[in-house]
Amino acid sequence: MGITKEMLREKMNTDGSWFDTLWVFYRAGNYSQIGSDAAETTKIYDPSSNTIYSYQVSGKDICSVQQALDLDLKGGADKPAVSVVDSTVTIMGFPCKIIRLKWGLGQYDYYYNDTQAKVDPTLFAKHTSEGLSEFLKLSGSLPLQIVKSVMGMEVIHTAVLIKQGKVNPDVFEVPELVEDNSLNSITLPGITMMRIKR
Length: 198
Prior knowledge:
The termini are far apart. The protein has a seven-stranded antiparallel β-sheet with strand order 1-2-3-4-5-12-11, with no helix packed on it. It contains two helices and twelve strands; from the N terminus they run αββββββββαββββ. By secondary structure, the protein is mainly β. The mean pLDDT is 90. The longest helix is centred in the first third of the chain and has 11 residues, at 5-15.
């Protein structure tokens, strides 16, 4: 698309959207991801409604509300092809196996070590978005690295620390949302845009 990695990073640094750290918290089937960018980009998964909420804590007042389902561009189910890559990679000193999930528009490679970050796959059984439930059924562990390759763009998330302990329940709290039809003039399958009540 004529954009280099350096150009994209410079633009993201300028507008405050660049982050190099993502804190991820898991508890009883919930997860929360908080970025180190200026707006604290946040993504929360609520298993009771199988919904993902994505918003900026100190930025715009818009929240993307998405069903945690893999859907194609027409709204139909889009189940990925799943394969085990015949290779291992060392992450945080642990040899990791790789499970690849491939869709028409891209692929995710999940790297995991089956002795680390163990999880009950049934907690995320309904979360088919990004192939998470398929990956967890096979691995029984959370990923230590994810390589997302979509439409020529590649994003890599690599764990640098795994820690068990108490998690502040506030990180799983979704702000109060209100409907705003003007945000949904263009619709995407399974996604509704809402406003955060300030």
